[in-house]
Prior knowledge:
Layout: E1 3-7, E2 13-18, E3 23-30, H1 44-51, H2 61-69, E4 74-79, E5 84-91, H3 95-108, H4 113-131, H5 134-146, H6 160-165, H7 168-178, E6 184-190, H8 194-205, E7 227-230, E8 237-245, H9 253-264, H10 271-279, E9 286-292, E10 297-305, H11 310-326, H12 331-348, H13 352-366, H14 372-380, H15 384-394, E11 401-405
Amino acid sequence: MKINTHIFPNGIRLIHQQVESPAAHFGIILNTGSRDELTKEQGIAHFIEHVIFKGTKKRKAYHIISRIEDVGGEINAYTSKEETAVYASFLNKYYDRSMELISDIITNSTFPAKELEREKEVVLEEINSYKDSPSELIFDDFDELLFDGHPIARNILGTPKHVKSFKQEDIFRFLQNNYHTDEMVLASVGNISFEKFLALAEKYFAEIPARLRQDKRLLFDRYTPAVKQVKRDTFQTHCVIGNIAYDAQDEKRMGMVLLNNILGGQSMNSRLNLTLRERHGMAYNVESSYTAYSDTGQFNVYFGTEHENLDRALKLVNKEFRLLKNKKLGTLQLSKAKRQLIGQIALSSENRDDLMLTLGKSFLLYNKVDSLPKIYEKIEAITGTQLWEIANEIFDETRLSILTYE
């Protein structure tokens, strides 16, 4: 289906796809995340995600939540290293209600002092809960190992010390410095014409004063491989092994996506799952992931295993790395891998909530969105030689970092 775009004079961009569905999805995605925080602000981007729902100039917290939920919809938000999003799902006839609410939240939140103190306790509990989950915490610690000393290394949740220190003026200062209108995208997927969506967007967002980004992020340009062992009282040994990888603009990015999917993607027949779990029974959960940032990227493999199996499991992981480095995929293997990834992308596009966010993020990063046929075409164009070259760059054993909880 056709995708429409528009840019307001204040720099805010719009992207909309009309679909035949009773449900609609709308959100605002901002190019601001935890890596944009100053040292004393660690965790504030995520904290704002919490408290932005706690009151505006015309609504209290209860009325914000009820505005969408009273008509059967949902409103949510997330914060990542580089993005913040506020979005809602609702019946099509409530487009006006939902867009007005999100506009009110983004432009008129007051961050009442009493609500800030209450929400600090919620975030502190979230941090404590996270610390109790080594299979999640290890990824943040691996970020710190990989991006040592750089803002991108920081835990998105922040630290208890920093969270406790946040005041109303700190929040307004962060918003002033980081919520730029030319770094905002309004994304929509629903059964409404683009003309009507544009009219609603003009009504609620076009008059926001322009605030254009002047500075640039601190680039990550140094990497030193490291090996670290952390003693923890856990039933399993948890391990992450990985390397820096390609940024979001790199022409090798799609090849890295395919290679990651072959090695340890979401399918049960990924190479790592077949090796560690199915053949050797060494891990209940084993996976690989690739994340592309604006100026760098990260590839990693995670698994949890019995303490005495760590060395053997690592050898099996490295064996899979060597197989992809030493031998190019055959024609049939490559064709199968491409079909699998294309199928996964096609199925994920049926989730309209995710589709809306994907459209918004793509438009935010690239100022364009490739159609599904175009994405499939790019996947089909990947060659065995390209995957072999990527494997030899990313799986280079002299460039790998390893973190274990033992």
